[in-house]
Structures are given as structure tokens and as C-alpha cells.
Amino acid sequence: MLRLVIGGTAVVVFALWVSLFSEARLPGQVVNEQTLSVEKYTPRSTLVVPQHPVQKAKYPVIDVHSHHGPGLSAGRWLAIVAEMDVLNLQVLVNLSGGSGDTLRRSLESIQASEHPERMVFFANVDFSREVTKGFGRRAAAQLERDVTAGAVGLKVFKNLGLTVRDGLGQRVAIDDPELDPIWEMCARLNIPVLIHSGEPSEFFEPVDRYNERWLELMVRPGRRLPSDRYPSFETIIGERDRMFERHPETRFIAAHMGWHANDLGRLGSLLDRLPNVFVETGTILYELGRQPLNALAFFGAYSDRVLFGKDSYVADEFPYYWRTFETRDEYFDYYRRYHAFWKLYGMGLSDDVLRKVYYENALRVVPGIQRALFPEL
């Protein structure tokens, strides 16, 4: 038995020494009701309802949120393309392009392959050094060179707003004016900025019995963002939104639906107020799938503003998205239990909305993708 003190309250947690990634029992090990942990509890559903798993997306898909580090081998790329063909994934937007020579080598590798049209790259700002005077201007100049080399957008990672520091060791706010030249350069080059700001709001809250993400934060404690070390969720979101508003000529894609997929009314108000902002669906399927009627209405109202994104590339996880978007199935599994302990329900999006989310919106927002890959146009 492990005794933890969380938020000032003593909480007794039984058998929490096992993570979700060690669920397999050793030979002869017995798990009974006395030793069963929260992680291991996976009840069999007795619900009998129609099931319609979807292996291949109904329309071709552009995944605007994918990650493939430098050094992707020719063999691995061929294997990925074969998986993409089965799934009806036409194009991956690789957000981990880096910059300078790293980006150039990755671009050359894909361009020399048998399928150069199936992946495009976003560049990244190097925040490994402190943000001092002139940083934004220098970063903007590097971005211009990266776009000349072949990048079609800019990805900003979550370290901005959380851990990036200035020359005095102070946290750099997302809307720090020093960074304005970067966003202005994106407008001038007519490329989008896909920005990951913050994390789910519960990551900033006490890890207690009321926290909806308790299980994830127990097995992945590094994801906690306590208030004595990090700014609040609302502080980060406020900085992000002010930056969006201050640069109306720049197209921004808020990663993970801006971490507002649990509050679609708030997200809708943001999109109403800021026409230069779009969102993508990476890693928030668990939110949409537990509110299918509300999500269906949101996608209908904002069908021109939502792009498909997955985040980490794992081929056998994509069909969960197809099923949630395309069917009206009830009470089916999500692919990562530590993200959500609940089941999913299908939204049943219309064909018009599916086409927009799957590829049409991305073709409008992200330059450099070959339209010939999409015969529906």
C-alpha cells in the first residue's frame, strides 16, 4: 500500500506501483479483487449494439499534426507510405522539421524518395538559447531561409510559455513583443503557424480525487504543472489569445483544438472573435467522442475552421478517428486508457463536413500540398 499526500489530503492508493505500460502479468501471478489496481481494472462491456469499425477514411486525409524526427530512413518511409495507403492518408505534415541544415537534410531525403509529395515540413524556432534583444529578428530571418529551402509553415512547441527564458532567467510570455518579428514574417511569407500552447487544464490543477486526469498524472507525473513552478492555464491561454489578436494577418492553427475541446462554447467564441485562427484535432479525440451531439453541432457550425490532426504517428490508432467522425456507433474503446477512462461515441459527420476536415481546409491553410492528390476537387 502506498500512502500519498495530495493537495493536503491523505489519499490511500492501493497497488499503484504498476504503470499502464506493465499490465502483462508474470507467469503464475494472480490478480484478484484484493490486489486489483485502478490501472488493471478493465471491465468487459455487456452492451450489445451495432459496431462499424472503419479501417479506411471515407475521403483522402491530410494529417496536419505529425512528427517524424531527422534521419527518417528510406525503408521506414516506404513502410509509412504503405500504411498511409491502407488508411487513405494522402499527406503528412511533419511538424518536427527543425531549421537550417537539419531541415534541409530532411527535405532532401523525402524529395529524393519515391513519394516526395506525401510529406511536407514545418520549420521550428530554436528556443534552446535565451530570448535576448534581437532574438525575434534573428529567428524571423532564419525562418525566411527555411521557407526558401522548402518549409511550408512554422510549428511552435509548448516550451514557449512554459519553460523558455529570457536573459534574466524570466519566463518568456507567448505574447512577448520580442517575438513579433516571427509572426510578422509568417504573414509576409503567407505560411501558417501551428502553435501548441499550454496543456490540458487539469494538468495545472491539484492531483486529487476530483482531477479528471488523475490516472494519467499518476502514471506520467512529469506532465504535472504545479502552480509553484508554472503559470496557470488561464495565464498561458490569455497570452496566446492576445498574440493571435495582435497579428490578424497571420494564420494560426491552435494545436489540440486549443485545449478547449472540453468547452466547445468557449472555443466557438474564440473562433468568432478571431477569424485568423483555425484548430486541429490532435490528441483530443477523447473529448469529442464523449459529447457526440455537441461536437457534431460544433463541427457543423465551424466546418471551415477545423483541420484533421493526429499528433504521434501510430498507424493502428487512426481508425479510431475515422470511426468517431464517420459513424454513429456507441460506447466503443479509446486507444489510450490513461488519457480517458470513458468510452467513445460516433459523431456521424456529414460528407461535406468530412471533406472539409479531412483535406479541404488544410489545402486552404497550408501551402505546398499537391492538389492533384485529391481527385474530389
Output the keywords.
alpha/beta, TIM Barrel, 2 domains, 3-stranded parallel beta sheet
The largest sheet, given as strand count, sense and whether it forms a barrel, is: 6 strands, parallel
Head-to-tail CA distance between termini: 60 Å
For the secondary structure, the number of strands is: 11
Strand order of the largest sheet: 6-7-8-9-10-11
- Strand content is 5-15%
What does this structure look like?
The protein has 377 residues and is an alpha/beta fold. It has 2 domains: 1-42, no CATH class; 52-371, Alpha-Beta Barrel (TIM Barrel), CATH 3.20.20.140. The protein has 11 helices and 11 strands. The strands form 3 sheets. Strands 6-7-8-9-10-11 form a 6-stranded parallel beta sheet. The radius of gyration is 22 Å and the shape is globular. Residues 1-28 have low confidence and may be disordered.
What's this model, at a glance?
The protein is of the alpha/beta class and 377 residues long. The protein contains 11 helices and 11 strands. It starts with a strand and ends in a 12-residue tail after the last helix.
